[in-house]
Write a structure and sequence with these properties.
- There is one protein chain.
- The chain has 282 residues and is of the alpha/beta class.
- The chain has two domains: 4-46 and 66-196, 3-Layer(aba) Sandwich (Rossmann fold), CATH 3.40.50; 219-281, Ubiquitin-like (UB roll) (Roll).
- 34% of the residues lie in helices and 23% in strands.
- The chain has eleven helices and twelve strands.
- The chain has helices at residues 15-23, 49-58, 87-94, 118-136, 163-169, 174-180, 186-196, 222-229, 231-235, 245-251, 254-259, and strands spanning 4-8, 40-45, 62-64, 67-72, 99-105, 146-151, 160-161, 199-204, 210-217, 239-244, 264-266, 276-281.
- It has a six-stranded mixed sheet, with helices on both faces. A three-stranded mixed sheet has the order 3-9-8, with helices on both faces. Strands 11-10-12 form a three-stranded antiparallel sheet.
- Helix 4 links the parallel strand 5 and strand 6.
- Helix 1 (15-23) runs parallel beside helix 5.
- It is globular.
- Residues 3-151 form the OBG-type G domain.
- This is Redox-regulated ATPase YchF.
- One of its GO terms (molecular function) is metal ion binding.
- It comes from Candidatus Nealsonbacteria bacterium CG08_land_8_20_14_0_20_36_22.
Length: 282
């Protein structure tokens, strides 16, 4: 199971543009409301240099990163909770998401009469989420972890990302991006979403054949980690061998790490730490 992040905001603030940049998928983007009626869903790799370093030591046949799911949800408008602009449908798409990235427009208005008012835009979205929660009698929408992302090209007043540039650069090769001197902020956003969900990563190296990253809720015990890898590992769990990824890198091999006593034995109550490399024994 991958955790999901809903991308929300008013119409035409750059939601589909961000989604395209994140997933490198071509989606329907246009400067008119409700381009995205059905949500686009994309699975995005969580960047992790630790997995790359572990793989250099293990030299596996396969490297499998962990992922997070992004859901591009169509623009909400004032009155969405009452059905305005297909609002009820769009709000229902937010409910299954584990967290929210709310995009706020801070770039120059495209049409006459449009104002740039981030505070007002945020208030509109917050009101719609709150009213929907009150209507259904719970706090599902307003209680979700949230990241505010200000989409702008010039303002220094807000934490910002130029989503158009990010989307344009996603279509270029790594060499072309380097030549242009562009530094993407997408990795920081992905990691921020990962962190706001209270997630950690542990690793397995499956007999040297595959180096793999796994997602786990912070504070989970090793049985929960075992379930992620294979149901048999949880049911038949005897013990596990665990080493922090840094110590594995320092010793340069699993065998040397065992010989030097850097690998510890963990029982069922062990709480998995971010960066643990684990071998399960059944």
């Amino acid at each position: 199971m991958s955790f999901s992040v809903g991308i929300i905001g008013l119409p035409n603030v750059g939601k589909s543009t961000l989604f395209k940049a994140l997933t490198k998928k071509q989606v329907d983007i246009a400067d008119y409301p409700f381009t995205t009626i059905n949500p686009n869903i994309g699975v995005v790799v969580v960047p992790d240099e630790r997995l790359e370093k572990i793989a250099k030591i293990v030299q596996p046949e396969k490297i499998t990163p962990t992922v997070i799911k992004f859901v591009d949800i169509a623009g909400l408008v004032k009155g969405a909770h009452q059905g305005e602009g297909l609002g009820n449908q769009f709000l229902s798409y937010i409910r299954p998401c584990d967290a929210i990235v709310e995009i706020i427009r801070v770039f120059k208005a495209q049409r006459p009469g449009e104002e740039i008012n981030p505070e007002k835009d945020i208030e509109i979205i917050e009101t719609e989420l709150l009213m929907k929660d009150q209507e259904i009698g719970d706090n599902v929408l307003t209680s979700k972890p949230k990241i505010y992302l200000f989409n702008t090209q010039s303002s220094e007043e807000f934490p910002k990302m130029n989503l158009k540039d990010e989307a344009d650069m996603s279509e270029l090769s790594e060499e072309e991006i380097k030549e242009l001197g562009f530094k993407s902020q997408l990795d920081q956003l992905i990691l921020a979403c990962y962190n706001i969900l209270g997630l950690i990563t542990f690793f397995t190296i499956t007999g040297g054949k595959e180096a793999r990253a796994w997602t786990l809720k912070k504070g989970s015990n090793i049985i929960k980690a075992a379930e992620k890898v294979h149901s048999d590992f949880a049911e038949k769990f005897i013990k596990a061998e665990v080493i922090p990824w840094q110590k594995l890198i320092e010793t340069d091999s699993w065998l040397k790490a065992r010989e030097t006593g850097k690998i510890k034995t963990a029982g069922k109550e062990y709480l998995v730490q971010d960066g643990d490399v684990i071998e399960f024994k059944i």
